[in-house]
Amino acid sequence: AFATLLQVQAYFQRHHHHTRYQTFDRLGLPLGSGMVESACKWLIQQHDTPNGSPYHFTYAFGLFPGTRAQANLKTGPVYSLPLNTTNYGVAFTGVKDTYRETVPVRIATSTNAELPSIADGSNTRPAARVVTLTVTVSGLVPGKAYKLYLYNSIAAVPDGSFNTNAAKASSVWPITIASGSTYVLKQSIMSNQSVAYRAVPATAR
User: Fold this and answer.
1) How far is Cα 117 from Cα 75, in angstroms, rounded to an integer?
2) Which one has a higher pLDDT value, 13 or 160?
3) pTM to 2 decimals?
4) CA-CA distance, 198 to 103, in Å (whole number)?
């Protein structure tokens, strides 16, 4: 959501002096990866002990640090990325869709920054302002009916059966295109709002 992107931007503006990774790397300092690792359900790290036997660190999801501050606590769980071994990442493959019925929805915003920018060292955000969203639904078949749903919170978005759970959406648009494969909708929201969209065939669950 746009509001989340603004929070991320504000974080890096406040902590840019902590993210000089190229400088830290030249100095041979370790670069933490706690926020990436916190997205994993568990982490198993293998190291070689002096006698050659391996040992492991294994943690439940809830124990992983959710912020860099938590990751850097001296009392926090141990985390690391070993050298010369296989590293792992997290990939986002799409929205939660139990029955794989959704069609792609992309959102572009009329602005990529919060203006005026949040002051360095401040926790006071600028006043919310209007942001125009360009919502593009793709993968459509001409003559086939679809529905585009708008949700005013992530919690309201179902994992599947979007038509059955239509009452959870705040708005719905019926879509039937005559040609091409896309449908474009313009909508304005406030920069402190969070919204989500899902599009499915009208015949979907």
Assistant:
1) 34
2) 160
3) 0.58
4) 8
From the list 95, 92, 43, the residue with the least C-alpha distance to 65 is 43
- Position of tokens 């071994």? 85
Amino acid at 28: G
165-195 residue pLDDT tens: 999 999 999 999 999 999 999 999 998 899 9
DSSP code of residue 7: H
Pick from 142, 133, 143: nearest CA to 106: 133
Residue 157 contacts residue 195 (beta carbons within 8 Å): no
Q: What's the rounded Cα separation, in Å, for the pair 156 and 168?
A: 6
Give every CB contact of residue 45 below 8 A, 6+ residues apart in sequence. Answer: 56, 57, 79, 80, 81, 82
